[in-house]
């Protein structure tokens, strides 16, 4: 809802200052035998997206077998930045170029804590934030305690910034790739219901 006297641009600017990064995953089925062309197309569209303000990075997940969907993942700093890219004529031109290479089969968007709470094959909305916060707290407290007992004593002579970087990097990596995928599966019924 806009405040009285403010412009749409001011509202979008305010939104982008408080908004969380957005990750988009697009599934595409690539025409058999045209995988190399699709990779070149992907390199081109991502190079174009990277020139837009707010672009944070991208990746592509190739299928294990021919005929399965490829997943193109890209991330923007906030919804406003993502919208500028997605509504751009340049992106529309790139999508036209891929029409005979690949068919889009699905799109998923997540932001904030939602990125830790995605289940394979699930496209429904993320669970309520209070549930995500409880499960994250249940995962992070034991992990931080364990790291304080095992990792920090090994780093006691290190400078503060280096200790913090190692601690935070290890914690973030473990939470993202090891702990939260398991916690999401373990607490699936609590998070998503039956």
Would you give an account of this structure?
The protein has 194 residues and is an alpha+beta fold. The protein has 2 domains: 18-112, 2-Layer Sandwich (Alpha-Beta Plaits); 129-192, no CATH class. Helices cover 51% and strands 18% of the residues. It is built from 7 helices and 4 strands. The chain has helices at 8-18, 35-50, 79-86, 89-97, 129-150, 160-186, 188-192; strands at 22-30, 55-61, 69-76, 102-111. The protein has a 4-stranded antiparallel sheet. The chain is globular and about 55 Å long. The two termini are 34 Å apart. Mean pLDDT is 80; it is low at 1-6 and 10-17.
Brief descriptors of the model:
four-stranded antiparallel beta sheet, disordered N terminus, 2 domains, alpha+beta, 194 residues, 7 helices, 4 strands
How far is it from the N-terminal to the C-terminal residue, by CA? 34 Å
Q: Could you tell me the radius of gyration in angstroms?
A: 20 Å
The third-level CATH topology of the largest domain is: Alpha-Beta Plaits
Q: What is the string of helix and strand elements?
A: HEHEEHHEHHH
Q: Average pLDDT, to the nearest integer?
A: 80
Which CATH-level-2 architecture of the largest domain?
2-Layer Sandwich
Structural class: alpha+beta
Gross geometry: globular
Biggest sheet record: 4 strands, antiparallel
Helix content: 40-55%
- In terms of DSSP E residues, the strand content is 15-25%
Strand order of the largest sheet: 2-3-1-4
Tell me the domain tally: 2
- CATH class descriptor name of the largest domain: Alpha Beta
Per DSSP, the total helix count is 7
Low-pLDDT windows of residues: 1-6, 10-17
Overall strand count: 4
